[in-house]
Amino acid sequence: MPPATAVKKVTGKSGDLRMFFGGSKPSASSQKSNGSSTAVARSGSSQTLKPTQSQKSAAVAISDDDEPPKPRSLKKSVNALAIDDSDDEAPLKPAPKPKAAPSQAAPSKKRKPAVIESSDDDDITPPPKKQAVTSQANKAKPRPSTASKAKKTDNDGDFDMKASDSSSEDEFVDDDDNEDKPRKPSKKKKLPPPKKASPRKPAADKAKASTSEQGPKPAPKANWAAKAAKLAKGPAAQGSKPIPDGDPNALAGLAFVFTGELTAFAREEAIDMAKRFGGRVVLQPSSKTDYVVLGEDAGPKKMEAIKKHKLKTLDEDGFLKLIATRKVKDSDLDEKTRKKMEKERAEMKKAVKEMEQREKAEQSTSKAGKGIDPKTQLWTTRYAPQNLKEICGNKAPVERLEQWLMDWQGSYKAGFKKPGKNMMNVYRAVLISGPPGIGKTTSAHLCAKLAGYTPIELNASDTRSKKLVENGMNINNSSLDGYIKGTQGGGSGDIPLTDRTCLIMDEVDGMSAGDRGGIGALNAMIKKTKIPIICIANDRNSQKMKPLYSTTFNLSFQKPQVNSVRSRIMTIIFKEGLKIPANVVDQLITGAQSDIRQVLNMLSTWKLSNQSMTFDEGKDMVKMNEKYHILSPFDITSKVLGPYLFSSTARETLGEKMEYYFQDHSFVPLFIQENYLKPTPSRLKNFDGVERQLKELELMDAAASSISDGDLVDALIHGPEQHWSLMPLHAVCSTIRPASSMYGAGAHYGTGNPISFPQWLGQNSKQNKLMRQLGDVQIRMRLKVSGDKNEIRQSYIPALFPHIVKPLVDEGAEAVDDVIQRLDDYFLSKEEWDTIIELGVGANQDEQVLKKITSQAKSAFTRKYNAAEHPIPFHKATDLGKAPKKLAAGGPAPDIEDAFEVDDEVPDDADDDKGKEDQDDVTKDSLIKMPKRKKAAAAGATAAKGKATKPKKA
Amino acid sequence: MSLWVDQYRPRTLDELSYHKSLSERLKSLAASGDFPHMLFYGPSGAGKKTRISCTLRQLFGAGVEKLKIDQRIFLTPSKRKMEINIVQSNYHIEITPSEAGNYDRLVIQEIIKEIAQTQQVDLSAKQRFKVVIINEADSLSRDAQAALRRTMEKYMSNMRIILCANSTSRLIAPIRSRCLLIRVAAPNSEEMSHVLDNVARRAGFTLPEEAAQKIVDDSGGNMRKAILVLEALKMQSPDLNGPLSIAKPDWETYCHKVADMIIAEQSPAQVMAVRSKLYELLSHCIPPTVILKTVAERVVDKVDESLKADVMHWAAFYEVRMRVGSKKIFHLEAWVVKVMSLYKHFFYDIDMSAFD
Question: What is the phi/psi pair of residue B343, to 5°?
Answer without folding.
Answer: -65, -45
